[in-house]
Design brief:
This protein has 203 residues and is α/β, with parallel strands linked by helices. Helices cover 30% and strands 30% of the residues. Strands 2-3-6-7-9 form a 5-stranded mixed β-barrel. It has a two-stranded antiparallel ribbon with strand order 4-5. The chain is globular, with a radius of gyration of 19 Å. Keywords: Lyase.
């Protein structure tokens, strides 16, 4: 396991050696984008109102404090379940050129294909750290698609050392969760065999 510090814009070359299980800390531009944002891009064919090419998105519905003069403060930004975006993510990545997909939990084969074909990473932010995560958002520089409401708005954030982010799908399309599941099943079968040998006298 290795630790990497990435700063946007991020190139394919920057992430080619990063593998599942590695740790990433992100500095630069990160945009929150969840269900409705993905739906607008993929199903409705709208252009993202903010350029996320070679940058990062976060599957999250943050809590925002509204300040005077159209200023905002991030109060909490816990990731939401990424699998909800699985039906959109392959096309979303291809259309937008986003390089890092950050969220909670595993994603499926569509995202894995996107990571392999378009050279992106899927990463998981540890759950239960929404307030801590907000401390690494230095500034909210813009808000797009505000008609969607606070959770679904595209909050354009400037972050510093945002992480730790665990790489769960790499540019080979390897999936950390699938690998761990296979390892679990292998160990389970080994234990079942041992137990069966010890209790074979039972009829």
């Amino acid at each position: 396991m290795k630790t990497y510090h990435l700063t946007t814009p991020i190139s394919a070359d920057d992430i080619k050696d990063i593998r599942i299980g590695d740790i990433v800390y992100l500095t630069g531009t990160m945009v929150t984008c969840r269900d409705d944002g993905h739906r607008r891009v993929v199903k409705e064919g709208l252009e993202m109102p903010v350029d996320v090419k070679d940058k990062a998105i976060l599957h999250a519905g943050p809590i925002i404090k509204y300040l005077p003069n159209n200023q905002y403060k991030m109060v909490a930004v816990g990731p939401t379940t990424s699998m909800r975006m699985e039906m959109f993510e392959e096309e979303f990545v291809h259309k937008t050129g986003v390089r890092l997909i950050i969220g909670k939990g595993s994603m499926g084969p569509g995202t894995a294909r996107a990571c392999k074909n378009d050279k992106a990473l899927q990463l998981v932010y540890p759950a239960g750290n929404a307030v801590y995560a907000a401390k690494h958002v230095e500034k909210i520089v813009d808000a797009k698609w505000t008609d969607l409401g606070m959770p679904e708005t595209l909050w354009v954030c400037k972050v510093k050392d945002f992480g730790p982010l665990i790489v769960t799908i790499d540019t080979n399309g390897d999936n950390f969760f699938d690998a761990k599941k296979a390892e679990f099943n292998r160990r389970k079968e080994e234990q079942i065999k041992k137990i069966s040998e010890q209790v074979q006298f039972i009829k």
